[in-house]
Design goal:
Layout lengths: L1 H33 L2 H4 L3 H98 L3 H33 L1 H18 L11 E3 L4 H7 L4 H10 L2 E3 L6 E5 L3 H17 L4 H30 L6 H8 L5 E2 L2 E2 H19 L3 H10 L15 H12 L3 H8 L10 H15 L8 H16 L4 E7 L4 E6 L6 H18 L7 E5 L10
Parallel strand pairs: 7-8
Antiparallel strand pairs: 1-3, 2-3, 4-5, 6-7
Helix pairs in contact: 1-3, 4-17, 5-11, 7-9, 8-9, 9-10, 11-12, 11-15, 12-14, 12-15, 13-14, 14-15
Protein name: Ribonuclease Y
GO biological process, one term: mRNA catabolic process
GO cellular component, one term: plasma membrane
């Protein structure tokens, strides 16, 4: 209220000052005019009358301006007062809301605090009650808490063993019931293998060259080693001449280079002229001849399988199959066998036969490039090749998923994987070295021997069966059923093997008494 009165007084004082200023300015102008000769001639009464009239007019104008300023000040004051009233109402409303919210929060806090206290008391009551119940149970059962837990644990373990053994036996019964379906599937697989069998001749790239005499080694080396250095530089193959008598060994990771070197060395030794010039000329001719042979081989494979429209780059990779082996299995023979297997399997299940044949043909393209592309498994490389040159995503998935690390997206992709497994597992298809065989047999036996209940384990039938002898006084019949299943499961998850491994459990309990 005081601020409003102060503002009103300020406006009135401002209006009075403004009127005084106007009177002063008009008075000054009047005095200047009175000095004018025209006014000197006036009579005193006339001058006084005119001045009085002029002054009255000026006073009236000044009063009018003061009244306008006063009215404007009052209007502004009224507007300001209205704004202050509105603001005060908003503040009052906000204050009421805050008070109500604070009251609600306080009530909720009090409620939570009371609930928390009640919960703590309930926990204490439950704890005390559990202690009382445990004490009563111990008194009734004459057992401590630890003894009761151990007894319960043993009973539960026995129940679980019986349940698991029963479940395994029921599963075996169901498996026997479905034997007709398995027999039918086995007939289909055997029939497809019979129809797709190919001639497996032991073809391998030459790594050892027989020579007629030790004198020829001097020709191969040449004066100051010029011939052997030229040969190794042009072929990319290392020549080993001191390893065995009447033999020269060729060492290189690339089977194509090794083949070029073997053919060139045989031709040079047969010709008898061995010097840098003839070496360069011979190797150049062998490379051109081998390139033509690779192309012819690729075209023949494509023609034999019915896919003559393959890109030239893929044809060249197919031709290189002739010089690539996996576990002693030539890629041409393996791929052709897979094409036949895939066709029979696809026809039996109603899948796309031509698609499966094409995927089987191309599934191992990456194997001829594994020494050139590092960091990728061969089936991933095969998928990349199909995407690049054939541009078929479904075909690429069928090619790259045959080893199980990539999810197959079609039934045809699954059939490619099945055909690859059948071809690799066929007896005699692949050879294994002695060291790997011994390691695999030992690992099978070690898996079974890790259990205390097992007395001895023997891998027989070339690792196709593991016979496990259990300790009869330690392992019960239910233990034998469960542990046999565990051993088979661990072999399946940790070992790599073609076909299947049978686990046979033996538990013999003998008691003999002598009657006298």
């Amino acid at each position: 209220m005081e601020s409003i009165l102060l503002l009103l007084l300020t406006v009135i004082a401002t209006g009075g000052i403004g009127g005084s200023v106007l009177l002063f300015q008009n008075n000054k102008k009047l005095q200047e005019k009175l000095k004018d000769p025209k006014f000197i001639a006036m009579s005193e009464d006339e001058a006084i009358g005119k001045a009085s009239l002029k002054a009255q007019n000026l006073i009236l104008e000044a009063e009018k301006e003061v009244a306008d300023l006063r009215q404007k000040a009052l209007d502004d004051n009224k507007a300001k007062r209205q704004e202050l009233d509105d603001e005060q109402r908003r503040i009052d409303t906000r204050e009421k809301e805050l008070i109500a919210r604070s009251k609600s929060v306080d009530e909720r806090f009090d409620s939570l605090e009371s609930k928390e206290k009640a919960l703590e008391q309930a926990k204490k009551d439950v704890k005390n009650l559990r202690a009382q119940v445990a004490t009563k149970l111990e008194n009734v059962a004459n057992l401590t808490k630890e003894q009761a837990q151990e007894q319960l644990k043993q009973e539960v373990e026995e129940d679980i063993k019986s349940y698991i053994a029963k479940s395994i036996k029921e599963a075996e019964k169901k498996k026997k019931i479905s034997s007709q379906a398995e027999d039918k599937a086995r007939e289909i697989i055997i029939d497809s293998m019979q129809k797709s069998a190919t001639d497996y001749v032991a073809e391998s790239t030459a790594t050892t060259i027989e020579i007629e005499s030790e004198d020829l080694k001097g020709k191969i080396i040449g004066k100051e080693g010029r011939n052997i250095r030229t040969f190794e530089r042009l072929t990319g193959v290392d020549i080993i001449v001191d390893e065995a008598p009447n033999q020269v060994s060729l060492s290189c990771f690339d089977p194509i280079r090794r083949e070029v070197a073997a053919l060139a060395l045989k031709k040079l030794l047969k010709d008898g002229r061995v010097h840098p010039g003839s070496i360069e000329e011979t190797i150049k001719g062998i490379k051109n001849e081998l390139a033509r042979e690779i192309k012819r081989t690729g075209e023949k494979i494509a023609y034999d399988t019915g896919f003559n429209d393959l890109p030239p780059e893929v044809i060249k990779l197919l031709g290189r199959f002739k010089y690539r082996f996996s576990y002693g299995q030539n890629l041409i023979k393996h791929s052709l066998e897979m094409v036949n297997l895939g066709a029979v399997l696809a026809a039996e299940v109603g899948a796309d036969v031509n698609f499966v044949k094409k995927a089987c043909l191309l599934h191992d393209l990456g194997k001829v490039l594994t020494h050139e592309i590092e960091g990728k498994p061969h089936h991933h490389i095969s998928g990349d090749i199909v995407r690049k040159y054939i541009k078929d995503e479904k075909l690429a998935n069928a090619v790259e998923s045959h080893h199980g690390d990539i999810e197959p997206q079609s039934i045809e992709a699954i059939l490619v994987s099945v055909a690859d497994a059948i071809s690799g597992a066929r007896p005699g298809a692949r050879k294994d070295n002695y060291e790997d065989y011994v390691k695999r047999i030992k690992s099978l036996e070690d898996i079974a021997k890790q259990y205390n209940e097992v007395k001895e384990a023997y891998a027989i039938h070339a690792g196709r069966e593991v016979r496990v002898i259990f300790k009869p006084k330690v392992a019960s019949d239910d233990d034998v059923v469960i542990l046999t299943r565990k051993i088979a499961k661990e072999i399946e998850e940790t070992q790599s093997y073609p076909g299947s491994v049978k686990v046979t459990a033996i538990r013999e309990f003998r008691i003999s008494e002598e009657a006298k």
